[in-house]
Amino acid sequence: MQFENTLAFARTLDRTDPLKKFRALFHLPKVKGKTALYFTGNSLGLQPKSTRQFLTEELTDWAQLGVEGHLHSKRPWLYYHKFTKKGLALLAGAKPAEVVAMNHLTVNLHLLMVSFYRPTKSRFKIITEAGAFSSDQYALESQVKFHGFDPDKTIIELNPRKHEYTVRTEDILSAIHQHKDELALVIFGGVQYYTGQLFDIRKITQAGHAAGAVVGFDLAHAMGNVKLNLHKDQVDFAVWCSYKYLNAGPGAVAGVFVHERHAKRFNLPRFAGWWGHHEQERFQMKKGFIPMAGADGWQLSNHPVLPAAALLASLEIFRQAGIKHLQTKSILLTGYLEYLLNQTGYVGEKFLVLTPSDKRARGCQLSIYMKQQGKKVFDVLTKAGVIADWREPSVIRVAPVPLYNTFEEVYRFAKIFNEALK
How does DSSP classify residue 48? Predict the structure, then answer.
């Protein structure tokens, strides 16, 4: 598409947008009485208007049924973890048995590393991206120490080349091959939180497996943002949170993917809890943990119904919109933002976009690296009603989300940003 730097063009795109009705399904924050330009769905997604109804239904059943709600509520609580499976599977490119909502992201990362990071004296190293999200760094470091290894000698962090800002896929594949005889685990973010780079999940997984390693991904910034094919790509495991693009609310219940080839590997070491125990015997309270097949076997506790109700509300919207349609709009929306940023005339002088221009290597987030006075520019944006995201040391993250952001909002942001640069 040939973009134009005009308000009329942006409004034309909005009028012809097949997903335009979905914006009305969300609560839009206001700044000084006006609807904000909200571009932080990569940090916390907006609240669907239907969330209140889903929560109210559970609260009503709790009030009226008490403990009987486990079996007799509208959505019986005993089976609540099953209700989100289909929606999560569609977004993950997985089978329902391969996914389950549970716990929080870092808890899940630790639980799955118990099973899938099994270092030996000869094969113990981990390859990941440099500058991974801090919680992932802490999890990897502590797991390595737990097994008695030195993190500095065990965790291989891959940096971009000199004068580049994202890691080339060929450099990742080369590093995997280089360390193949000592490699136990390859783990990357699906979308890198700071740069917005979408890693090539299929190629990384293939290379990791060829090296004899297990391959996992943190999909916090990928789930609900980019089209995933975890099953076909043969990923061993993945974790994600649900409060970003999945719009399930602050501190929402997270989720995991475990490939079906591991579904009945009951001899895998794991930390056990009663909700991962064989379903038909769960309430017999007998000794001897028997894991359920599939991802369900990694559950610990009974499902958090109220947070899961919020996730259900959002997944219903995703079902209606369709991830393919969302991806199509996302490519247009983010492409338009990139075009407008390039139109400012300040690229290279005052800022750079770290995120790859290749639409296959990014989701909807663009990371703007400020070469000068970045915090001042960010403060100007904030005062003008823009809700974006500042990340130290010098990046403004902007994420036009296809479910609720518009082309006119992107146009208005670019105008405010351009004035701030002046």
Answer: B
For 401, the 3-state DSSP assignment is coil
Kindly give, in sequence order, each residue whose CB lies less than 8 Å from that of residue 323, ignoring residues fewer than 6 positions away: 90, 91, 227
β-strand partners of 294 = none
Q: How many CB atoms lie under 10 A from the CB of residue 104?
A: 18
What band does 181 get if pLDDT is binned at 50, 70 and 90? very high
The Cα 290–Cα 293 span in angstroms is: 9
Residues 125 and 144: their CA atoms lie apart, in Å, by 9
pLDDT at 156: 98
Asked: is 7-47+322-421 a CATH 3.90.1150.10 domain? The reply is yes
Q: What is the pLDDT of residues 371-416, one digit of tens each?
A: 999 999 999 999 999 999 999 999 999 999 999 999 999 999 999 9
**Per the confidence metrics, is the pTM higher than 0.85?**
yes
Distance CA 75, CA 83 (A): 8
User: Which two three-digit tokens encode residue 266?
Assistant: 């009951």
- Cα 241 versus chain centre, distance: 6
Q: What amino acid occupies position 101?
A: A
Residue 364: its pLDDT value, please? 97
Residue 158 pLDDT:
98
Task: Identify which has the larger pLDDT, 1 or 69.
Answer: 69
Tell me the one-letter amino acid at 181: D
Phi-psi region of 212 (alpha: psi -120 to 50; beta: other; left: phi over 0): left
Burial of 81: CB neighbours in 10 Å, binned 0-12, 13-18, 19+ = buried
Strand partners, 396: 368, 390
In CATH, what class is 56-318?
alpha beta
Spatial CA neighbour of 99 closest among 110, 113, 83, 115: 83
Q: How many residues does this entry show for the chain?
A: 422
Biggest alpha carbon distance in the chain? 70
Q: What is the DSSP string of 178-216?
A: HTTTTEEEEEEESB-TTT-BB--HHHHHHHHHHTT-EEE
The C-alpha atoms of residue 119 and residue 122 are separated, in whole angstroms, by 8
398, 368 in Cβ contact below 8 A?
yes
DSSP state for residue 101 in the 8-state scheme: E
- Whole-number mean pLDDT of the chain? 97
Domain residue limits, the chain: 7-47+322-421, 56-318
